[in-house]
Design brief:
heterodimer, A: 298 residues, alpha/beta, TIM Barrel, globular, B: 334 residues, three-stranded antiparallel β-sheet
């Protein structure tokens, strides 16, 4: 089972992103790196060319690099962007991660990953996606262990990847909720997302943790964590586990996952260590156990 | 000149008749199971009722579209495929689909059944729409509620697929078919079980002089005694962010495009969809009738068209929270 570092879903700026992925490439045991902007086209800090250049540099670490594409494509400019990305990726021999059907269309025939925002809910859908070039599928985050096994049964020659760690990307809207929180129009958002490296907390009126606002995306405030379910994931023969970038100490997060996967530390110890990194905020894993996503099943 | 279509919801036979009797050009309905996104108790059609409904619609020269817009579940996909066959067999005028596998099945098995791409497929751009056209020969796309009228117009220039938009009713502000907010709290996936904010997870609780609405254990909003409480859906909830309490995503108001009707028509939209298969026949009748009048008024004199005050007033009486919004169609909403 391999480890991937998902696309950074937050606005860490050009330098923040570049430094982060270099660290992941050259200082961790992750196997796959997803780079590229999924959430907001206003955050495209790296042009497609710069992105491909970065990808080539990261690839020299021996890891696979995939170019992730936008999750919600609406405008002409965004479509121009994804066409450029797909073309450059093809020329550079890189897979693209499609997160909107637009990218499946644009990338048809070239090697693709169907990201977690593509509705891969059954094996027949995977069969179709395979026909158009999809070689790997990242399952929708709301699926349980049993359901994932069902989706992936009988589907040969397509790799499975499960979102295993990080704040869950739950939904996209045309409206920017960060701009709304500052009474700013989306067109003049002043890049407020940059001030919230793990998203802006959205609590209930009882002041309980609930969601985080991340521009047009809304996410779980709790970090999803399947490390206690590692044995199940191994039994299911999941090919890849995705660790989604969080601002705190991702290098150690990868190390803890790797050590647990290799049997060097037990999952209880791993959870304790991850809790410490996560500032002792609780985790959630409910989706994997056919429960509400926000629950944590022991 | 072909008039824009008024497309009305039907949660049961009486609503279907109300839609037809009040001037709908077409109606849409689903079957009584998880195969559509309004899988609510006591709602939707049996096969027999669907046949009867279609007969009533066709007799009045009204079209009937079958909704099959959830994703087949892995352990019991048969019911979805059977529903495609039933729609073809009973003579539906179109089938509304979201799932790639069902689209493929329908196109191969029933090449003459027109396919409308559901809003649940979240196709918000011409690259996606043209992909669906190429592979499944869809004839129409139901646009997600994420685009401005200006964007819809530009979209129309890049595709020859018919465009249908939501004109009135509940406003889903997320990219539909890809929203996990409700399952995050309830464990029930709208995408495969057909229900967002299921009634069994909803609670209204009096706390002193305040009213609280909950979904699962999560407090969605707390209301003062003089406020109207909305049904607790997360995207219409009142939460705290950036040190203030407000509707962080959207106010609990209804969509109403009447004020922008000329712009919507001139953007090339062919069908105005009224949301609300879960609503009463009186809602369906009232809203359909009002849209019929408005559309006819536009075509009798496009330049002079202004929405009448009494139309807006009538529509407001049917709306959640009795307020309405132009939603995503106007740019400053975003």
């Amino acid at each position: 089972m391999r480890i991937s570092i998902g696309p950074c879903l937050f606005d860490w700026g050009k330098k923040g992103i570049t430094d982060f992925y270099k660290k992941m490439a050259f200082e961790t045991d992750a196997d796959i790196l997803y780079i590229g902007e999924v959430v907001c086209s206003k955050r495209l800090h790296l042009s497609p060319k710069e992105l491909v250049k970065l990808a080539k540099e990261l690839k020299s670490s021996g890891k696979e690099v995939v170019l992730s594409m936008l999750g919600l494509v609406m405008t002409e400019e965004e479509q121009v962007e994804i066409r450029k990305m797909a073309k450059l990726a093809k020329d550079a021999g890189l897979r693209i991660e499609a997160n909107d059907m637009a990218s499946i269309g644009v990338g048809e025939g070239q090697p693709m990953v169907a990201g977690p925002h593509i509705c891969s809910y059954n094996p027949e859908t995977l069969d179709f996606l395979k026909e158009v070039g999809v070689e790997r599928v990242v399952l929708p985050v709301e699926l349980s262990a049993n359901y994932i096994s069902g989706v992936c049964r009988d589907v040969k020659s397509i790799e499975s990847e499960v979102f295993a760690y990080g704040r869950l990307p739950l939904t996209f809207s045309a409206r920017c909720y960060t701009a709304r929180a500052f009474n700013l129009p989306k067109g003049n958002c002043q890049y407020k997302c940059g001030d919230y490296p793990d998203g802006m907390p959205m609590h209930t009126q009882e002041n309980k943790q609930f969601l985080v606002i991340n521009g047009i995306e809304t996410m779980s405030e709790l970090v999803y964590n399947l490390i206690a379910d590692l044995k199940t994931l191994q039994k299911m023969k999941v090919d890849i586990l995705r660790l989604s970038p969080q601002s705190k100490n991702m290098k150690d997060v990868v190390k803890i996952w790797k050590s647990t996967m290799d049997g060097k530390i037990e999952s209880q110890e791993a959870i304790a260590k991850l809790l410490e990194i996560n500032g002792n905020d609780p985790f959630c894993n409910g989706y994997f156990h056919e429960r509400p996503g926000l629950e944590f099943v022991q | 000149m072909n008039k824009i279509e008024v497309l009305a919801p039907a949660g049961n036979l009486p609503s279907l008749r109300a839609a037809v009797d009040n001037g709908a050009d077409a109606v849409y309905f689903g079957f009584r199971n998880a195969t559509n996104a309004r899988n609510f108790e006591g709602l939707n059609f049996s096969e027999k009722e669907a046949i009867e409904g279609l007969r009533y619609a066709h007799r009045n020269k009204v079209k009937g579209n079958v909704v099959l817009n959830t994703f087949p579940q892995v352990d019991k996909p048969d019911i979805w495929y059977k529903t495609v066959d039933i729609a073809a067999k009973i003579g539906a005028d179109a089938i509304i689909l979201a799932n790639l596998a069902l689209l493929k099945y329908c196109r191969e098995k029933h090449p003459d059944l027109p396919i409308h791409l559901s809003v649940q497929a979240s196709a918000s751009n011409y690259e996606a729409i043209n992909f669906y056209k190429k592979h499944f020969n869809i004839t129409r796309v139901i646009l997600p509620r994420v685009l401005t009228v200006e964007e819809i117009k530009k979209l129309g220039e890049k595709t020859d697929i018919e465009m249908e938009v939501f004109a009135f009713g509940g406003l889903c502000v997320m990219a539909e078919g890809r929203c996990y907010l409700s399952s995050y709290v309830t464990g029930v996936s709208p995408n495969i079980e057909g229900v967002c904010s299921p009634a069994r997870a909803v609670r209204f609780e009096n706390r002193g002089d305040k009213l609280q609405t909950r979904l699962g254990d999560v407090l969605i909003a707390e209301y003062e005694a003089d406020e109207d409480a909305a049904y607790p859906t997360i995207c219409k909830g009142r939460f705290e962010a950036n040190k203030k309490v407000y509707h962080t995503m959207e106010e609990p108001s209804s969509l109403n495009v009447l004020e922008m009707l000329p712009e919507v028509i001139e953007a090339g939209v062919v069908s105005l969809k009224i949301e609300g298969r879960q609503r009463t026949k009186s809602y369906v009748g009232t809203v359909t009738k009002t849209f019929r009048k408005a559309v006819d008024a536009y075509y009798s004199s496009p330049e002079k068209f202004r929405p009448k005050g009494k139309w807006i007033k009538t529509l407001n009486t049917t709306s959640e929270g009795a307020t309405h919004t132009l939603g995503t169609y106007q740019e400053d909403w975003q």
